[in-house]
Design brief:
Blueprint lengths: L1 E3 L4 E7 L6 E3 L1 E3 L4 E7 L3 E10 L5 E12 L4 H10 L8 H20 L3 H6 L1 H16 L4 E8 L3 E2 L5 H106 L4 H104 L4 H11 L2 H16 L16 H27 L13
Antiparallel strand pairs: 1-4, 2-3, 2-5, 6-7, 7-8, 7-9
InterPro entries: Band_7 (IPR001107), Band_7/SPFH_dom_sf (IPR036013), Flotillin_fam (IPR027705)
Pfam family, one: Band_7
Main location: membrane
Length: about 450
């Protein structure tokens, strides 16, 4: 019988004429031979492996492995056909076999690592598990096509990862508060620094502007002197040219005169002619000498004036530069002094505030101690504080000073020793005593206040 396997299947043939196992996609199967068809497509196995780290902290490792036979290796495929293919690849037997290999290798590897190493090195942990499991599966002709290790999960009653997440959240929140405080501090410091730099740059720009202005003025003065000097030299050259032309004209006139005189009286005027030639040469030399002298005088004067103006301009520019540098230095020192004063004032106020807070806290503690000592009797506490602080002594002293300043006058009146009997007599005596008491009373009022009694009551004799 001729059999053909599907694309994901192989034929495993044993029997007569075959030493071990023959694998084929299609083949003749004879009566004295046995043929088994097995599927080589991979299968997904989902596990939740419980393991324990080196610190003896249990955890759950969810994982999904895609495992199948190694189709590119004939020896591995024969192993799979011999050991696994007799069973259904999705049966409990195969599932337990694969799960046992994965759990064993995972637990051994986890026991050699700390929880922090497992959590932070998930990628390396996955690779280690993958490699060790693959070594064990090679003896069954199986290969791992894909391994997906999910996030570690806490075992009920051991919430390590939950606590670790809470710790990370709290650390992030605290770090955020610290960052906000530091950013606020840097912002305030940066604002103060920018203000100081603005003042310094403004003073520097003002000083540079003044220096540039003085340089421009010096350059303008220098150019003006240069132009005047060139004009003066040009005028001197023109005057020399005029003098030279005049001399040449005089020479030509003398020559013409000489020729005329020679033509007329050559014999008789030879001496005169020679004298005229000598005289002409003398005048020419005198004219050249005067020209050179004038030229030298004017040129020397112009050079002296130019050098003088240049020196004055340089000196004035130097003074302005030094003044600007001194002003800039003074402004910088003033800014530094103001900053130092502000820092000192801030520190002083801060220390005063801390002292007041400490004093208030100490006084509050002292009052609470006294109040506990008198069993919350506020009247007793008030009397103690007034006695302890000398309030009663101050009140007595103030009253004594007030009475002393009044300077009262005391008058003693004697009504006599009249005695009588009878009811009507006693009544009249009381009325008489009242009238007798009025004069001393009115007299005392007058002495103390200066007020006179009404006219209808009479007048006091003084």
């Amino acid at each position: 019988m001729f059999k053909v396997a599907r694309a994901s299947q192989y034929l495993a043939i044993t029997g007569a004429g075959i030493e071990d196992i023959k694998l084929s996609k299609k083949s003749w199967v004879f009566p004295w031979q046995s043929c088994t068809v097995f599927d080589v497509s991979p299968v997904n196995y989902t596990f939740k492996v419980q393991a324990m780290s080196a610190e003896k902290l249990p955890f759950v490792l969810p994982a999904v492995f895609t495992i199948g036979p190694r189709v590119d290796d004939d020896d591995a495929l024969i192993l799979y056909a011999r050991l696994i293919s007799p069973h259904d690849k999705e049966s409990n037997h195969v599932h337990e076999l694969v799960e046992g290999v994965i759990e064993g290798e995972t637990r051994v590897l986890a026991a050699s690592m700390t929880m922090e190493e497992i959590f932070k090195g998930t990628k390396e942990f996955k690779k280690e598990v993958f490699d060790k499991v693959q070594l064990e599966l090679n003896q069954f002709g199986l290969v791992i096509y894909n391994a997906n290790v999910k996030q570690l999960v806490d075992v009920p009653g051991h919430e390590y990862f939950s606590y670790l997440g809470q710790k990370t959240q709290m650390e992030a929140a605290n770090q955020a508060r610290i960052d906000v405080s530091e950013a606020k501090m840097k912002g305030e410091i940066g604002a103060k620094e920018r203000t100081g730099l603005t003042v310094q740059n403004a003073a520097k720009i003002d000083a540079e502007s003044k220096i540039i202005s003085m340089q421009r003025q010096g350059e303008g003065t220098k150019e003006e002197i240069k132009v005047k000097t060139e004009v003066k030299v040009f005028e001197n050259q023109k005057e020399a040219d005029v003098a030279k032309a005049n001399a040449e004209l005089a020479m030509k006139k003398a020559a013409w005169t000489k020729d005329a005189q020679v033509a007329e009286v050559e014999a008789t005027k030879a001496v005169a002619l020679r004298e005229a030639e000598l005289q002409t040469q003398v005048e020419k030399m005198n004219a050249l000498t005067r020209t050179e002298k004038l030229k030298a005088e004017f040129l020397s004067k112009a050079s002296v004036e130019y050098e003088t103006k240049v020196q004055e301009a340089n000196w004035e520019l130097y003074n302005k530069q030094k003044q600007a540098e001194a002003l800039l230095y003074e402004k910088q020192k003033q800014a530094e002094a103001q900053k130092a004063e502000a820092d000192a004032a801030f520190y002083t106020k801060q220390r005063e505030a801390e002292g007041l807070v400490a004093l208030a806290s100490a006084q509050g503690t002292y009052l609470r101690t006294l109040l506990d000592a008198v069993q919350n009797d506020y009247s007793c506490l008030r009397d103690f504080l007034m006695i302890n602080n000398g309030i009663y002594q101050e009140i007595a002293k103030t009253n004594a000073l007030a009475v002393r300043d009044l300077q009262p006058k005391i008058s003693v009146w004697n009504h006599g020793g009249e005695q009588g009997g009878g009811g009507s007599g006693n009544a009249m005596k009381d009325i008489a005593g009242l009238y007798k008491m009025l004069p001393p009373v009115l007299d005392t009022v007058y002495d103390q206040t200066g007020m006179q009694p009404p006219a209808w009551m009479g007048t006091l004799s003084k």
